[in-house]
Amino acid sequence: MEKLEQLYEGKAKKVFKTDNPNEFIIEYKDDATAFNGEVKGSIGGKGVINNKMTGVIFTMLEEKGIPTHFVKVLSENEQLVKAVTIFPLEVIIRNTAAGSICKRLGLEEGLKLKSPIFEFCYKNDDFGDPVINDYHAIAMKLATAEEIETIREMTFKINEILKTYFLEKGINLVDFKIEFGKTSDGQIVLADEISPDTCRFWDVKTNEKLDKDRFRRNLGHIEEAYEEMLKRVQA
Amino acid sequence: MEKLEQLYEGKAKKVFKTDNPNEFIIEYKDDATAFNGEVKGSIGGKGVINNKMTGVIFTMLEEKGIPTHFVKVLSENEQLVKAVTIFPLEVIIRNTAAGSICKRLGLEEGLKLKSPIFEFCYKNDDFGDPVINDYHAIAMKLATAEEIETIREMTFKINEILKTYFLEKGINLVDFKIEFGKTSDGQIVLADEISPDTCRFWDVKTNEKLDKDRFRRNLGHIEEAYEEMLKRVQA
Ligand SMILES: Nc1ncnc2c1ncn2[C@@H]1O[C@H](COP(=O)(O)OP(=O)(O)O)[C@@H](O)[C@H]1O
Ligand SMILES: Nc1ncnc2c1ncn2[C@@H]1O[C@H](COP(=O)(O)OP(=O)(O)O)[C@@H](O)[C@H]1O
Ligand SMILES: [Mg+2]
Ligand SMILES: [Mg+2]
Question: Domain SAICAR synthetase/ADE2 N-terminal: where (chains A, B) (predicted)?
């Protein structure tokens, strides 16, 4: 399998074609951005850590019956995935209130939600990934009503699996953002990544943040947090 | 029936207690605000027009089976209503894209939506009435899942009635914002007002705006637009 031309470069990853039209290579970068690209920086070792962590977690999710785009890890910072058409939706689950929702709605950070909040954002940097609902998504043809239902069901299942998985590793899964895509044969699969870039991980005992909020909020010990998370996932 | 102390004053109306604990008096003002109170002004005759128009429309909706808070018009700018506890939700239907949704999501103003977009905003001026979904509303205890379902069903029914009603008057009902409340005996009713302050009305033939966008966008002939709408509703 050959790595061919770059298809696109995002804020945290590059996507490359391969000689198989149904497979892409994702290259994970150390680049980090916050607040819709306003703050730019780099987190040493992040690309390698997120590549490995996503590999472990997507393999585990596949074993629990969640179809994903993941094929295999190729190198320290590259993985082979199924080529998909990404739904332009950021699919978010919040188990505890933190981050943007607190500012937007006046909730206190750390508030445990009785039941998870499911959120869609329209994945579009020009508009700052605005919160939308099913009606917006359907009207804007981001997905059909049936696709949205599939995505919602898969997301709640993923949350249940991840919550238990991380709790066993001493981590409170506060919230996460995932993306879904459609393969050439029409299957909806979990795509993109699951890492400290896309989740909020709080240590169960100390409440210490082990995720990208250390970068966003300038809390220091960023690399150590990412390393600690990889260690727990690999344990 | 006696008008007693003022309960609260909003941006467009005042609410007074009466000697009947189950009834309030709403006094309609000429005050107009835009962009979450950033722009303040006044529209001559608006209070009288909105009081009358809401009276006509709520009476019509009651006749078509929609429970509302409306009891009767008391004077040029006052009406008697059932006292309700307002759900802190701005309930919005969009038949055509216009206003905030165009800026927020990059839709073209005037785009006819294949099916109506139903939207909730959290009614809270401090946070700029942010868009939310069912999960947020339930988590924040703004309404229960059952109440939301009732509100949604009533809103779609109201949209069908209003679309037909206004079309017969040569008006394209672009979008509207309504509020719901709960009476002391637990009934969910349509409350607040339906007027050029809370709807976008476009003339079917000329596309002329006959609503508060004339004020928001400084288009002139504001009073005439409100008067024209009242004339059509009373015809
Ligand atoms: N299996 C896949 N096939 C095609 N594109 C993918 C796949 N998985 C993820 N992507 C896309 O790769 C792009 C690069 O990732 P990233 O750097 O995170 O981008 P962004 O700046 O949009 O967050 C994203 O647009 C993401 O949706
Ligand atoms: N039947 C009712 N009982 C109690 N409050 C009501 C009723 N109908 C409307 N209201 C409330 O009256 C207040 C005054 O109206 P308005 O000036 O439009 O306020 P706002 O500035 O919040 O838009 C609003 O908060 C509205 O929700
Ligand atoms: Mg990304
Ligand atoms: Mg109002």
Answer: 6-232
Smallest Cα distance from A153 to chain B, Å:
14
- Residues B62-84 as b/e (b if ≥16 CB within 10 A, e otherwise) read eeeebebbbbebbeebbbbbbbb
Whether residue A133 and residue B119 make contact (CB cut-off 8 A), yes or no, is yes
A70/A23 Cα distance (integer angstroms): 10
Per-residue pLDDT of chain B (235 residues; tens, 9 = 90+): 899 999 999 999 999 999 999 999 999 999 999 988 889 999 999 999 999 999 999 999 999 999 999 999 999 999 999 999 999 999 999 999 999 999 999 999 999 999 999 999 999 999 999 999 999 999 999 999 999 999 999 999 999 999 999 999 999 999 999 999 999 999 999 999 999 999 999 999 999 999 999 999 999 999 999 999 999 999 9
Element (H, E) at A155: helix A145-167
Answer yes or no: are the C-beta atoms of A92 and A120 closer than 8 Å.
yes
Which CATH number goes with the domain that contains B15? 3.30.200.20
CB contact (8 A) between residue A139 and residue B115: yes
Q: Which of B126, B131, B134 sits opposite A131 (nearest CB)?
A: B131
The reply to whether B159 and B174 lie within a common domain is yes
Task: Please report the ipTM that was assigned to this predicted complex.
Answer: 0.96
* Pocket of ligand 1 from Cβ distances under 6 Å: A 10-13, 15, 24, 69, 81-84, 86, 179, 181, 191-192
Question: Tokens representing B168?
Answer: 């017969």
Check pocket membership of B91 for ligand 2, CB cut-off 6 A.
Answer: no
The confidence score (pLDDT) of residue B165 equals: 98
Cα-Cα-Cα-Cα dihedral of A176, A177, A183, A188, to 10°? 60
A63 and A116 belong to one structural domain = no
Same domain, A64 and A136: no
* Chain A partners within 8 Å of B159 (Cβ): none
Domain of residue A116 covers 87-220
In this structure, the answer to whether residues B62 and B98 fall within a common structural domain is: no
What is the C-alpha separation between B87 and B184, in angstroms, rounded? 13
**Residues A167, A75: one domain?**
no
Quote the number of domains for chain A.
2
Q: Which residues of B touch A (CB under 8 A)?
A: 101, 104-107, 113-120, 122, 124, 126-127, 130-136, 138-140
Does B191 lie in the same domain as B104?
Answer: yes
Q: Which two tokens stand for residue A51?
A: 């590549």
Instruction: State which of A52, A82, A112 marks the end of a domain.
Output: A82
